[in-house]
Amino acid sequence: MAKILMVVSGADSMRLADGTTHPTGYWAEEVAVSHEVLTGAGAQVVIATPGGVRPTVDALSLDERGGVAEADARRHRAYLDGIADQLSAPLALAEARADDYDAVLVPGGHAPMADLATDAALGRLLGEADASGRTVAALCHGVAALLSADRQDAGFTFAGRTLTSFTDEEERQGGLGDNTPYYLESRLRERGAVIRSGPAWSSTVVQDGNLITGQNPQSSRATAEAVLKNLKDLTG
To answer: What GO MF terms are annotated (predicted)?
Structure first.
């Protein structure tokens, strides 16, 4: 049975470009669908957050204001309610060890930009996982978590790797626009990542060896399925 660490942001707010504070959290679909696909295939999923705090769901991810249909919101909410025990008592991220897992997956919501992007413990974990060839996956704004990883005297761990993330175009169309703390796609390019994006709001997954990234919430299912396929390919 594959064992997968799902790293979820613990942030419930973020400072915007204009200095105001904006409520945030994880995106319901990205956690719910990813967890459902992985556990449905028999994988064990362990949820971890910085400090072991209970993560907060972004209210917009369960609301038509966030572009989420009412029926989808009900389904995601019901699934999250079904794993409430796991969300209530996550593993403290600093206690996680890459060797204990076959894969690491980071779902999004804007919240990872507020904490995971600069989390030293996560940076070490991702670096160790990548160096050992374990599957490293991130989705939407969860790709910001990769920014936490630097090799000593060598810079950004994922420089030169091909990946995708929530795009600058999507941020302008349906995100925070120019009030975003930074445009994730642009920041990743600045750090040396090679970005390959699909059309805005399309289900787009990019795989570069053991690194798997999904562009947006619409890519949640395909990203989780790509993780499962990669794990199967690795075990033959």
So the answer is: glyoxalase III activity; transferase activity
Mean pLDDT of 171-190: 97
CATH number of the domain bearing residue 229: 3.40.50.880
Does 152 have pLDDT greater than 80? Answer: no
- Determine how many CB atoms are found less than 10 A away from the CB of residue 197: 19
Give one DSSP letter per residue of 9-49, joined into a string: ---SEEE-TTS-EEE--B-HHHHHHHHHHHHHTT-EEEEEE
Kindly write down the DSSP assignment for every residue of 111-165, as one continuous string.
GGGTTGGG-HHHHHHHHHHHHTT-EEEEEGGGGGGGGG-EETTTEETTTT-EE--
Q: How confident is the model at residue 65 (pLDDT cuts 50, 70, 90)?
A: confident
CA distance 115 to 109: 12
Beta-strand pair 103-106/3-7: parallel
200/103 Cα distance (integer angstroms):
27
Number of domains in the chain: 1
What number is the average pLDDT over the span 98-111? 98
Q: In this prediction, what percent of the chain has a pLDDT beyond 90?
A: 94
Domain range for 46 is 3-235
**Angle value at C-alpha 22, between 96 and 201, nearest 5 degrees:** 75
Torsion sign, CA atoms 100, 211, 218, 189:
positive
